[in-house]
């Protein structure tokens, strides 16, 4: 189950892309927002709908630096056709892109991880689901290393890489039906679209300090949105004993 490719064939294209128009901060923000502090007091424990993830490989990915060191920018990775699919709650989503934040955006019980990766999925009707993977500083992630090495270092640069299994590097644990925290929030960058189904995975992965430094160097002041009000929401989790049982 762990036979992931260690290869990226080549960084074959570096292109200048036109800078996108950036919406004013806060514009379009309505409805309950993200990120949040996933606190025991506003969570409950229940069995959660099963996640079924499908990955396609190999894929050609475009890694794009959307504008470091702007704190609303990131390095965004997209593949066409999409590199993966997610089925949950009777709905199918295609992976549109994934990107990184430093430090993490969500807190778990007040604790902030070193980084957070967001996998943005979209259903045919346009509804969004984001899977968040938290990253701690620790052992190097060998599978992710060639991807981090290929990261475009300047704003508006993109790098195209061939990857045999891009999502396997970080999504492999899906196959074991990972524990998670789920709630409805928003995108954390403009236009802050609400109604987003968030799935924050409970298990973290790790990057080495050197791996983190590659991304942190692009965003020395971070690229995160501040914690948003809980607004009466309840986070449902299948992490045992994290909180009270749902329904009590
Ligand atoms: Zn994000």
In short, what is this structure?
The protein has helices at 145-149, 168-171, 209-216, and strands spanning 8-16, 37-38, 43-45, 52-55, 59-65, 75-79, 84-88, 91-101, 107-108, 111-112, 115-123, 128-137, 157-163, 180-186, 194-201, 205-207, 235-237, 244-245.
Overall description:
This protein is mainly beta. The chain has a single domain, classed as Alpha carbonic anhydrase (Carbonic Anhydrase II), CATH 3.10.200.10. The chain contains three helices and 18 strands. It has helices spanning 145-149, 168-171, 209-216; strands spanning 8-16, 37-38, 43-45, 52-55, 59-65, 75-79, 84-88, 91-101, 107-108, 111-112, 115-123, 128-137, 157-163, 180-186, 194-201, 205-207, 235-237, 244-245. It has a 15-stranded mixed β-sheet that branches.
Query: Using only CA atoms, what is the Rg?
Result: 17 Å
* Structural class estimated from helices and strands: mainly beta
Number of domains: 1
CATH superfamily heading: Alpha carbonic anhydrase
Mean pLDDT: 84
**Ligands (ions, cofactors included):** zinc ion
Uncertain segments are 1-27
| Fraction in beta strands | 35-45%
- Which sheet architecture does the biggest sheet show? 15 strands, mixed
How would you spell out the order of helices and strands?
EEEEEEEEEEEEHEHEEEHEE
CATH C-level category: Alpha Beta
CATH topology: Carbonic Anhydrase II
**Individual helix count:** 3
Helix content: under 10%
- The span between the termini is 39 Å
Report the principal-axis shape. globular
Strand tally is 18
Q: Name the CATH architecture.
A: Roll
């Amino acid at each position: 189950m762990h036979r992931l490719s260690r290869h990226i064939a080549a960084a074959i294209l570096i292109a200048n892309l036109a800078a996108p128009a950036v919406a004013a901060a806060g514009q379009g923000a309505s409805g309950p927002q993200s990120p949040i502090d996933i606190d025991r007091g506003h969570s409950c424990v229940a069995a959660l709908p099963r996640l079924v993830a499908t990955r396609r490989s190999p894929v050609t990915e475009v890694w794009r630096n959307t504008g470091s060191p702007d704190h609303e920018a990131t390095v965004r990775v997209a593949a066409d056709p999409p590199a993966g699919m997610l089925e949950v709650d009777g709905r199918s989503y295609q992976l549109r892109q994934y990107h990184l934040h430093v430090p993490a955006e969500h807190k778990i019980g007040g604790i902030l991880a070193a980084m957070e990766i967001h996998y943005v999925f979209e259903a045919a009707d346009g509804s969004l689901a984001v899977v968040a993977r938290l990253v701690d500083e620790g052992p190097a992630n060998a599978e992710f290393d060639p991807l981090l090495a290929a990261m475009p270092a300047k704003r508006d640069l993109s790098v195209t890489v061939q990857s045999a299994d891009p999502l396997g590097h970080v999504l492999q644990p899906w196959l074991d039906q990972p524990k998670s925290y789920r709630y409805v929030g928003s995108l954390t960058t403009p236009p802050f679209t609400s109604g987003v189904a968030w799935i924050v995975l409970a298990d973290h992965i790790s990057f080495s300090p050197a791996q983190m430094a590659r991304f942190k160097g692009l965003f020395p002041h971070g690229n995160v949105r501040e914690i948003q009000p809980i607004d009466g929401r309840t986070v449902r989790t299948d992490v045992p004993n994290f909180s009270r049982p749902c329904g009590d």
